[in-house]
Amino acid sequence: MLNLICFSPHPDDAELFVGGILLKHSSKYKIGIIDLTKGEKSTNGDVQQREKEALNSSEILGVHIKENLNIHDTCINHLSNEQLIKVVEIIRKYKPTIILAPYYVDKNPDHREAGLLIKDAIFKAALANLYPKYPVHRCANLFFILQVIK
Ligand SMILES: [Zn+2]
User: Fold this and answer.
1) What pLDDT does 91 receive?
2) What angle do CA 57, 63, 66 make, to 5 degrees?
């Protein structure tokens, strides 16, 4: 079980936008970062560099769980049933009290879609007859992360 999950569209978004919050609370609460993609289409760096940096930052931040859902970068889609199931299973597996997700108004389409995907997955994680691999979990605390980059 985790107290808080931060869903991150790419392997640096959580660290860049809420790293301070995660660091502040990681000694007291169990925190996980779930990256949705590997950021393989990014202009900066490459997948190996991003993975290495993500693992290093997780250690520095004291994050307990760091996983990647391996959704293709630039292809996050809140209407994808496959992607929705992946997120629902994470929510049910770790049973977080608080979820952080990107705000669904953002210039980056992956960030927008991730916000909607997480919002929908939280709703569907509470439906007993849907994707019964893990027991239902109701997370009542969703906070959106406003990611502002010029
Ligand atoms: Zn991003």
Assistant:
1) 98
2) 80
- Residue ranges making up the domain that contains 77: 9-145
CATH number at residue 20: 3.40.50.10320
Cα 28 to ligand 1 centroid, rounded to whole Å? 27
Does residue 4 lie within any of the structural domains? Answer: no
Is residue 111 in a domain? Answer: yes
* Å from CA of 111 to ligand 1 middle: 6
User: 67 and 32 in contact (C-beta within 8 Å)?
Assistant: yes
The identity of residue 147, as a single letter, is Q
5-17: burial string, b at 16+ Cβ within 10 Å, e else: bbbbbbbbbbbeb
Q: Nearest-CA neighbor of 147 among 31, 2, 44, 19?
A: 19
| Cα-to-centroid distance, 12 and ligand 1 (Å) | 7
Q: Is residue 150 part of a domain?
A: no
Q: pLDDT (tens digit, 9 = 90+) per residue, 82-110? A: 999 999 999 999 999 999 999 999 999 99
**Residue 79 CB coordination number (10 Å):** 10
The per-residue pLDDT for 148 is 73
